[in-house]
Amino acid sequence: MDLLVLGGSVVAFRLLNGGLERLVPPPPSAQRNRWKWRNIWTSLAHSLLSGSWALLGFYFHPQMAEDLIDTHLPAAHHLLGISVGYFVQDFFDMMYHQKIQQCWELLFHHSVVILCFGFAFLVHRFVGFAMVALLVEINSIFLHLRTILLMAGLAHTTSYRLTSLLNLGTYVVFRITTLAWMTRWLVLNRENIPPNTYTLSTVGMAVMTPMNIVLFYRLLRNDFLTSSRREKEK
Fold first, then answer.
1. In the chain, alpha helices (H)
2. What's the average model confidence in pLDDT over 17-42?
3. 99 backbone dihedrals φ, ψ, rounded to 5°
4. CA 217 to CA 168: how far, in whole Å?
């Protein structure tokens, strides 16, 4: 059953990626990079699905928040498999369409996520902890929308400005704060976590935290610091 969920997710996201160009045709400004246009829309679909599903999971099953190791509903476990399938599909999609030097950071990120989520999915433990990590996808919704607006040539619109503000706000709440809370939880619950699992989780946090801090600075610089400097120079 686990392999069926995982394999079905890979196939479903592959089919979605292939059909998105007809569902949301790329605008003239994105014609030169049609692959990225499809890829970002596929990522947006995953973020909408996984972010909302994880949030609703904690809402309808609050017991999962009290025991992130062994308590979870089958739906939460299925979501984890679906997300692993997405990251596997996206990993190979980037490998096929881009040079390694262009996407090595994302490939590294996906490798860590696949390893950590895949472990929790296969052993049926720490699913709740993985659901906390998937709350990050709530921010990814606005991160992907921001990229879509940029590719559509709408960087100077009110929609883009609003999306940028929501992106930074949700970045702090659902990405930086969430990762900080997860790191704290690992430290406080070290005695309840097997050594190998603790090491894997700690390495995952050690990789994700600096990557997300660097990305936050880039977003802040590109959307606010640079634009503010340009306005002063006028």
1. 2-23, 34-60, 63-66, 74-97, 100-123, 127-134, 136-151, 158-170, 177-188, 195-220, 226-233
2. 93
3. -80, 150
4. 10
Q: What is the pTM of this model?
A: 0.92
Separation CA 193–CA 128 (nearest Å) = 14
Tell whether the model's pLDDT for residue 62 goes beyond 60: yes
> Quick count: other Cβ atoms within 10 Å of Cβ 146?
21
The length of the chain is 234
3-state secondary structure 103-149: HHHHHHHHHHHHHHHHHHHHHCCCHHHHHHHHCHHHHHHHHHHHHHH
The two structure tokens encoding residue 176: 């930086």
Rounded average pLDDT over 10-19: 95
CA atoms within 13 A on the CB side of 62: 1
- 174 neighbors 136 (Cβ within 8 angstroms): yes
> What's 224's DSSP letter?
I
| Domain-wise residue ranges, the chain | 2-233
124: left (phi over 0), alpha (psi -120 to 50) or beta: left
Q: Among 224, 201, 213, which residue's Cα sits nearest to residue 128?
A: 201
Arithmetic mean of pLDDT, 9-18:
96
